């Protein structure tokens, strides 16, 4: 069991309304130190509102939160000193160079000239920005701007970082770079509170995922736990011989037929035991399938089941570059 003081972030009963629109309707969660917690929700679900509350930018109407052991309202200053925030709207000033942006952050954190220089050089190297350091940030690509934004956040060496949709609008390669950055931060002991609309991102990075919909957390758990909430796992057998297809479709129980594709789907959790049972049965019946594939439910299925919302797709590049890869494992 994780003790209360080991949680980097705890929130209880957070509420926020704008006029008669309730954005957060009492949400609770706890984030153990050194882990990634992902708040997942469709557009307008209230993710940014939650980040803004937890980072002291706006106040909640009700509820409590503790960040790094400090009370959010009574010790707002201490909370601010412990956290870093990278929002959807970048803090990067395009008119000055990447290095100058970093120097401003070093000044904000009252680092000495020598310490500031050392930290900045290190961070620019680490985020592959050293070559572009002397160019105006307005000339940077979207991915470079995001990397600079995170580098600026890290100047103060925060132990808890809020990343609000860090990869929205990035191409697949920049997304993967950002994921790598986040993994490295966490392996260095940093706690990451990540909001995203992308299920594969939460799947890739988060230790725990909370799904925000209609102002409430409608589910919380690891990606694996959430996937178990929805049915949808099956084994698909495809045939080229119509006779073999017909025999399989009539003899196997609970199958769904796909006459056009000569394929049957059998509900299955995809375990070795179930696969063996299916293969044994095919062998003993003398039926040979041309292809067998295992479909495990993914977070897309969970998201749809919980929110009734279609899964958001990336506006740039591939919609699901990593998560989809293991959805259909042809064998
Ligand atoms: N200052 C404000 N005044 C009035 N309504 C607001 C304000 N800020 C946010 N809202 C409303 O609260 C809701 C939640 O907004 P929020 O930005 O937190 O959502 P989000 O989950 O971050 O969405 P997105 O993925 O689009 O960024 C939206 O309906 C938004 O219009």
TrEMBL record:
It is found in: Cell membrane. It comes from the Bacteria. This is ABC-type xenobiotic transporter. GO terms for molecular function: ABC-type xenobiotic transporter activity; ATP binding; ATP hydrolysis activity. One of its GO terms (cellular component) is plasma membrane. Residues 309-331 are annotated as: Disordered. It holds the Pfam family ABC_tran. Residues 310-319 have a biased composition (Polar residues). One of its GO terms (biological process) is doxorubicin transport. It is a peripheral membrane protein. It comes from Streptomyces monashensis.
């Amino acid at each position: 069991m994780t003790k209360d003081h080991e949680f980097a972030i705890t929130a209880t009963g957070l509420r926020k309304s704008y006029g008669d629109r309730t954005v957060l309707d009492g949400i609770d969660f706890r984030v153990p130190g050194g882990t990634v917690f992902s708040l997942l929700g469709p557009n307008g679900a209230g993710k940014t509102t939650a980040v803004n509350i937890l980072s002291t930018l706006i106040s909640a109407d009700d509820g409590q939160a503790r960040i790094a052991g400090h009370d959010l309202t009574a010790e707002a200053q201490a909370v601010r000193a412990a956290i870093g925030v990278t929002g959807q709207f970048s803090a990067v000033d395009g008119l000055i160079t990447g290095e100058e942006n970093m120097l401003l952050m070093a000044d904000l954190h009252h680092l000495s000239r020598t310490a500031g220089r050392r930290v900045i050089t290190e961070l620019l190297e680490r985020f592959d920005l050293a070559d572009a350091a002397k160019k105006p940030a307005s000339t940077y690509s979207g991915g470079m701007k995001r990397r600079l934004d995170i580098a600026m956040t890290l100047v103060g060496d925060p132990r808890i970082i809020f990343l609000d949709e860090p990869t929205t609008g990035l191409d697949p390669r920049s997304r993967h770079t950002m994921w790598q950055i986040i993994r490295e931060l966490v392996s260095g002991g940093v706690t990451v509170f990540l909001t995203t609309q992308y299920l594969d991102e939460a799947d890739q990075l988060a230790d725990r995922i909370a799904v925000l919909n209609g102002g409430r957390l409608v589910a919380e758990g690891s990606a694996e736990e959430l996937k178990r909430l929805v049915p949808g796992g099956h084994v698909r057998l495809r045939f080229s011989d119509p006779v073999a297809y017909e025999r399989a479709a009539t003899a196997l129980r609970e199958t769904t037929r796909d006459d056009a594709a000569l394929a049957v789907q059998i509900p299955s959790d995809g375990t070795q035991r179930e696969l063996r049972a299916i293969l044994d049965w095919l062998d003993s019946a003398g039926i040979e399938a041309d292809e067998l594939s295992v479909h495990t439910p993914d977070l897309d299925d969970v998201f749809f089941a919980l929110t009734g919302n279609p899964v958001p797709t990336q506006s740039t590049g591939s919609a699901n570059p990593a998560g989809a890869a293991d959805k259909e494992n042809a064998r």
